[in-house]
Design goal:
single chain; 574 residues; alpha/beta; four-stranded antiparallel β-sheet; elongated
Length: 574
């Protein structure tokens, strides 16, 4: 029994994912709002006009053949009115289609971007692929309001045609009704195939986008290694598969169109035969025979139905890929705030990703603590856990006695400031880049933070100083790090975390920044991921990680007596 359950679980998981995607498709379709209502009304008007036009034409034909001039004139006017109504409805449909699709696409993109930003560093989908899903996939899914509405309304002409024919002559209606299950089966298979094919097509587009984003991020390395041709081949390697999936899409449409056309021709031959026999028997008029042939096309015609199903299939494929993004876990935040405190940080039995193991560590309030260790011992992971850029698999992290998940997002980000080794800068100007955060500090504080980070000097040499557009500032790695440090200094509350944030700085600049950390910024807890012995030496306390656990902690001068500790910094011997 257990084995059977395990065997079924992948299928159940896949079914659940498909159900989630279809629910998202319905939610997307509903976001069209009143544009959906306008589209439905216009499409329904068009469908009703198309349904009654053949019988109106039949009346005109019979009136003309019967020599009734006034009757023919009235029938022609009725036909003209139906045509005008149909044309007006088509114009309104086009307007509602564009506006409803734009609204649904914007809603889904907003939803996706919000989830991507909420998931943060925990996002498991590559950035280029995420971009493809948000841009291309959401646009495909945005067709859902149009496709869903028109797919439903597309059922009106066939049903109406059968109803009218049942009134005209039930034998003709029965001839068409017998063939409709085959038509429905063909369309069902087509929707399944086109959804699967388009999903693979979009996935391959996402793969190319992800590889291109990686290549752009490593453009200098590629240029230095002279491997542009190799990268070109790697990025575009999925193109043959993409081409094959594109051909499969057109082949699927071609197959269904060919089968549909054959079915329609055979059905029309059958209807003409039955209608001819009915005409000879005197049970229908010549005009009704003409109407019967037209109603055959309405009842089994594949044109509008096929077009809407293609769009619906593409929308389903787009929402499947969107649903995969929305399934990414986003850490929930509480509603609590921090009590008064000075930044006491505690790790209690923390394990994460097979790197950190049952880690117990207390970072005292108001101290500058350097975390050292060989590569791969979990230093950056510890820094991520300290400010909840990641959550532990087991155990908990507390700030001033409060588990981090209980804090609201705003309370957490106000309390914790980060500086990274390769900071990304946001904003229109240099000052905006320093101000970027949960709240915008006063300009006086921003400039003081820049001075503490040794960034004020090179900023003042810019054409517009702090007001210089960020895009016009060519920065070295060290200058970028200094802006990132200034941003962290300006926003840090009771805990400041520096994750290798001085790796691109020269020794003199790093010393000045360390002096700021030990001076003006000494009123908060500072957690410093250190790779240089000099940084560790100036800290109040050193935490030495080894094998995912704390091997030792204490002042640098005390730990320096251990040869294994000196080896962490590449120093050997006595």
């Amino acid at each position: 029994m257990a084995s059977s359950a395990v065997t079924r679980s992948p299928v159940s998981h896949r079914r659940r994912r498909l159900q989630d995607a279809d629910r998202l498709l319905l939610r997307t379709a509903r976001t069209g709002g009143w544009w959906n209502a306008l589209l439905a009304a216009a499409a329904l008007t068009d469908a009703v006009a198309a349904t009654f036009l053949p019988i109106a034409m039949a009346g005109a034909v019979d009136a003309a053949l019967g020599g009734s001039g006034s009757g023919a004139y009235g029938a022609v006017l009725l036909c003209g009115g139906l045509i005008v109504a149909s044309a007006t409805a088509e114009v309104l449909s086009e307007l509602a289609t564009g506006c409803g699709q734009a609204r649904a696409t914007a809603w889904l993109r907003r939803l996706l971007v919000a989830r991507v930003l909420a998931a943060g560093p925990a996002l498991r989908i590559r950035p280029g692929d995420v971009t493809s899903r948000v841009v291309t996939g959401a646009a495909e899914a945005g067709v859902a309001p149009v496709a869903a509405t028109q797919a439903v309304v597309a059922a009106v002409p066939p049903v109406g045609a059968l109803a009218v024919l049942a009134v005209v002559d039930w034998r003709i209606a029965l001839t068409i009704a017998v063939a409709l299950p085959l038509v429905g089966l063909l369309l069902r298979v087509f929707v399944r195939d086109i959804t699967r094919t388009v999903h693979r097509y979009l996935a391959l587009q996402g793969t190319i986008a992800a590889r291109l984003a990686e290549a752009l991020g490593g453009a200098r390395t590629i240029a230095a290694a002279k491997t542009a041709d190799r990268e070109l081949a790697r990025v575009l390697a999925p193109l043959p598969e993409l081409r094959a999936e594109g051909h499969e899409t057109w082949d699927a449409q071609g197959r269904i169109a060919a089968r549909g056309l054959l079915t329609l021709l055979l059905l029309q031959v059958a209807v003409v035969g039955v209608a001819g026999a009915e005409l000879m028997a005197g049970r229908i008029s010549p005009g009704e025979l003409v109407a019967a042939v037209q109603y055959t096309g309405l009842a089994a015609g594949f044109g509008p139905v096929l077009s809407n199903l293609v769009r619906l299939g593409r929308a389903r494929a787009g929402t499947r890929r969107a649903a995969e993004v929305l399934a990414e876990p986003a850490p929930p935040h509480g509603t609590g705030d921090l009590p008064p405190g000075d930044g006491l940080l505690e790790f209690r039995g923390v394990s994460k990703g097979g790197v950190l193991h049952d880690l117990d560590l207390v970072i005292p309030s108001g101290m500058a603590v350097a975390v050292v260790g060989r590569s791969g011992t979990g230093k950056s992971l510890l820094a991520a856990l300290a400010g909840r850029l990641a959550d532990p698999d087991r155990g908990e992290v507390r700030l001033d006695g409060v588990p981090l998940p209980r804090l609201s997002r705003k309370a957490l980000r106000r309390a914790v400031g980060y500086a990274f080794d390769r900071p990304f800068l946001f904003g229109d100007t240099v000052l905006d880049a320093i101000a970027f955060g949960p709240d915008r500090p006063p300009e006086r504080r921003l400039r003081a933070a820049a001075e503490a980070a040794c960034a004020d000097g090179f900023i003042r040499r810019l054409p517009l100083e702090y007001g210089t557009p960020l895009k016009d500032v060519p920065m070295s790695g060290g200058e970028r790090q200094r802006i990132g440090l200034a941003r962290a200094f300006a926003h840090a509350g009771r805990l400041l975390i520096l994750d290798d944030a001085t790796s691109s700085l020269d020794t003199a600049t790093e010393l000045r920044i360390t002096e700021a950390l030990l001076g003006p910024l000494s009123d908060r807890t500072r957690l410093i991921i250190a790779h240089r012995a000099g940084t560790a030496a100036r800290a109040d306390l050193v935490v030495w990680l080894d094998g995912g656990r704390v091997r030792a902690q204490g002042p640098h001068r005390v730990l320096w007596g251990d040869p294994a500790y000196r080896a962490v910094f590449g120093v050997s011997g006595a």
